[in-house]
Each structure stands twice: as C-alpha cells, then as structure tokens.
Design brief:
The chain is an alpha+beta fold and 230 residues long. The chain is 27% helix and 26% strand. The radius of gyration is 16 Å and the shape is globular. It starts with 12 loop residues before the first helix and ends with a helix. The model has no long low-confidence stretch (mean pLDDT 96). The structure holds two DNA strands.
Amino acid sequence: MRIDIPHPWPRTEADAIAIQDRLRALVDRAGPGPQDPRLVAGLDVAYAEGSDRVAAAVVVLDARTLEVVERATAVGEATFPYVPGLFAFRELPVLVEALSRLQTVPELLLCDGQGLAHPRRFGLACHLGVLTGIPAAGVAKTTFVGGYDAAALDPRRGAGAPLVDAGETVGRALRTRDGVKPVYVSTGHGIDLDTACRHVLALAPKYRLPQTTRLADRLSRDVLRAHATG
DNA sequence: GCGACAG
DNA sequence: ATCTTGTCGC
C-alpha cells in the first residue's frame, strides 16, 4: 500500500504542534470501525542506544486464530527527538515505511502508544489512522493524560474505567488479566472506544499486552539487532 | 513556579 | 526506548 505524508517534516516543536493541530480535524472519532475484522496489525519501534537507528515492525494477525498472516519491517534513523506529546514524529517515518511494504491491507491498526489520550488529542494512533485511512487505536502501557479511579477498577479481566482529561473521556484503562495493571486504550481514527477495547481484549487472551503488540515488539528488536550485527 | 511527561 | 540477575509464582 502507498502512504503519503501530507505535510512537510517538522524541524521544530512548534512546527510539529501546528501539524497536529491541523490534522486533528481529520480524525474520525465516531467509528464504529470493523466489528469482526480478520486482519489486525500491531506496530512497534525499537531503538538502539548509542545511535539514532530505529527499527519498525508491523505484524498482521488473523484476529480469530491469532496466527501471523504477514510481517513487514523497516530500519532507519530517528528524524525527531523524543518529546512527550510529539512522539509520533519520531516513529512515523519508519513505521510508514514498514506499512508500505505490506502486501495485505489490515482492517485495524493497533499502535504502541496513545490515540486521543494525548494533550492535544492527537497521539500516534490518530496520526497513523489519518495518514493511512485505516481504523486505528492506541494501546499504551502507561497513561499520558487522563486519570482514572484505580481503586475502583474491578480486578477482573475485562473490567474498564474511563480515562478522563479536562472533563472529557479520552480513553479507557482496560484490564486484560486478573489482578494485573491495565493497559490504556484510546481511539485513534475510525473506531469507537467500545469496539477498540473489545478487539484489544480478544487479542490479549493470555498476556497483559495484545499479541499484536508483543509480536511487533519482538520483531522490531530482532531486526534492530540483526542490522547492528550484520 | 515546579514537577511530570506515550516510547 | 534502553541498561540488566535473579527470583517469586502459576
């Protein structure tokens, strides 16, 4: 698939923020998104320590069997420093490159990070969703913006509590394993929160993180290591 | 003003 | 994100 980045690459934080503020209007928060998708993709990026080298991985799974359908990777240089809130500008280029090498077209993109649960409501999952036009959601390991009542969150798998920021529900703390810290799901583009959480839960039958994320994480690290070694 | 801050 | 051994538990 071909993916166009409809904006010049920012060099400053102000430029990056301006891009987010502009693209935010293109986000579809309503969904509902795919109800019974077959192809779901997980995306992640691994970083090297002493350099700006980054490796991205996309793993497409059959949502019903959780079997791997396709994998694609890309290696490159980080084009932006890590700045909380501008995280997408660091990972987007290499992720888009990996996505473009895919032969199949996923029905849903699950990103490692936030969607709407972002200070300007435009996290990585929103950005990737708008760029590709594919429904996308973010699954983060920690919260960024949006608090929730941890004490009131039922300890059982499947339980959820709204993430509220500035009076707005921006995502959900979702328990994927009994008694284990939840993951933080937020809509990216073209899917509603309930649907996104349903898929995340189905993709995480055994571990805290969905299988999409776990496989993409492992693959990106393997590729980075292989590239460093030769 | 100060601290915290997705990966 | 990455650096890192063992260890407790199912």
